[in-house]
Amino acid sequence: MAYNLGVDLGTTFTAAAIEHFGQVEMLTLGDRAMIAPTVPATTTQAHPPSTPDRVG
Question: pTM surpassing 0.70?
Answer without folding.
Answer: no
